[in-house]
Design goal:
The structure holds 2 protein chains of 2 kinds. By secondary structure, chain A is α+β, with helices and mostly antiparallel strands. Chain A is built from 7 helices and 8 strands, in the order H-E-E-H-E-E-H-H-H-H-H-E-E-E-E. The longest helix of chain B has 14 residues. The N and C termini of chain B lie far apart (43 Å). The chains are: A alpha+beta, B alpha+beta.
């Protein structure tokens, strides 16, 4: 009888725990639990209240309360060292800025950049993973915080960072600042230089911007599916998320966790990298 | 004599393109719920109602409308006629008993005076005409028949061809209408 009860309890537990949660997270990845979250901007900012931008340019509203299945995502952005293994194993073309096809000196732990969306996709496939959808990226970036402004909460950037926005050379001295990362820097930092977000993900904001799997469409949010949205069927640009180190900005909107960006999938640029999901 | 003057004025306003467009906008919006389910479950007449509403818009229309449901926050920007059609389609398929009225306006607290349905209009510096009017909207959700109402306003810019190029539909506080 006791065995029967225990078996029943075990069955119930298995039924409610997401499948992904029943297995250990792959090395270097974090489990993002299944559930609903608000994607997009749920609040107004001074640009709205002052009628300071064309409203037809707004692409992160309306915010939507959507459901995502559980998934895994890399703790860190893919590094030069990670990509070198891929290059060696597959004969893929190294990023153009690598001298003689080798990682620049002492940059093994720097986030990979100068790879286009196709190359990022190929890397993730080779690693047995995939690029995250835009919705997955945002859920992961939010670190479990509900409708927060930033990946680290609602507090705005600290004083030193504000000074850094005015004089980027000052921010160079602040690279040890935990999240929020200082922006407006001339280059990226080694991955993991800043404190992680609530899910244990590093460099969500402030290192390189990150490719996602989705096509970009500024009309997507008004009619977004409420379960596991995977982006538009087609498009011209791919969605890129997360402020990059060079995003000095003039008003700080790039640092918002819901900020959307996009790029031609063929673009190779030194401010866009990626991380994989599974 | 006063009555005659008012009637003449009202008649003239009713014939104006501005007044007609405002009334057509509300008439066709309300008509989005004028369709029926056939015995085999088909939505009969719904596409015609949607097409009728879409006849009012220019291809490059830009519209700002309220969120669709409780799972959305923030205004919805609709760029182009295809996206406006999605919005119209959603209204037609998810809401019933649509009743958007142009709100009556009076001069002072004259409760017994039925008021005027005013459409404010102006010629736009870049061509075309702008109109604005106050509304009271009411609708029921198709899924559970709960009914809601909200005061609001409509701002429209239309070109010389009479097609809407800009639309802003603003709704104030949305209240549930409860039976007494």
């Amino acid at each position: 009888m006791k065995k029967k009860i225990l078996f029943t309890i075990l069955c119930c537990v298995c039924a409610v725990v997401p499948i992904a949660a029943q297995t250990a997270a792959p090395e270097g990845m974090v489990l993002i639990p299944a559930g609903k979250f608000w994607i997009g901007r749920t609040f107004s900012i001074f640009l709205d209240s002052g009628d300071l931008w064309a409203r037809d340019k707004i692409d992160n509203r309306p915010a939507n309360n959507i459901y995502l299945d559980a998934f895994y995502i890399d703790k860190y952005e893919v590094t030069n060292a990670d990509y070198a293994k891929f290059v060696q194993a597959t004969g893929a073309r190294p990023p153009w800025h690598w001298p003689q096809g080798k990682i620049p000196s002492e940059e093994e732990k720097f986030p990979l950049a100068n790879v286009n969306w196709h190359e990022a996709t190929d890397y993730c496939k080779w690693a047995g993973k995939r690029l995250p959808t835009e919705a997955e990226w945002e859920k992961a970036a939010r670190g479990g915080l509900d409708r927060a402004h930033y990946a680290w909460g609602d507090d705005t950037i600290d004083k030193s960072t504000e000074e850094g926005l005015l004089a980027p050379q000052i921010s160079l001295r602040n690279t040890a600042t935990p999240v929020p990362a200082t922006l407006g820097r001339p280059r990226a930092n080694p991955v993991g230089s800043f404190a992680p977000n609530g899910y244990g993900l590093y460099d969500i904001i402030g290192n390189v911007m990150e490719w996602t799997n989705d096509w970009y469409d500024n009309n997507y949010y008004p009619f977004m599916p409420k379960r596991n949205p995977k982006g538009p069927e087609t498009g011209r640009y791919k969605s890129v998320r997360g402020a990059g180190y060079a995003d000095q900005g003039g008003n700080g909107i790039e640092k918002l966790v819901d900020y959307r960006n996009f790029s031609d999938p063929d673009t190779r640029i030194n401010t866009i990298g990626f991380r994989c999901a599974k | 004599m006063v009555s005659a003057a008012i009637n003449l004025h009202a008649q003239a306003a009713a014939d104006s393109p501005e007044q007609k467009l405002a009334e057509q906008f509300l008439t066709r919006l309300n008509a989005l719920s004028d369709w029926y389910l056939s015995v085999d479950g088909k939505e009969v007449g719904i596409d015609q109602r949607i097409d009728s509403m879409m006849e009012l818009y220019a291809p490059d229309v830009l519209a700002e409308v309220p969120p669709h449901d409780k799972d959305q926050i923030g205004s919805v920007m609709l760029r182009g006629k295809d996206n406006v059609r999605k919005w119209v389609d959603r209204i037609a398929r998810t809401q019933v008993r649509l009743n958007y009225l142009m709100k009556r306006q009076t001069d002072g607290p004259t409760g017994d005076f039925e008021g005027w349905r005013l459409v404010y209009s102006t010629k736009l510096p870049w061509g075309g005409t702008g109109i604005a009017f106050q509304i009271i909207g009411a609708w029921s959700l198709r899924e559970d028949r709960r009914r809601f109402t909200a005061p609001g306003s409509v701002f429209i810019q239309y070109g010389p061809d009479g097609k809407i190029r800009r639309l802003r539909l603003l709704l104030g506080e949305i209240d549930e209408v409860v039976p007494l």
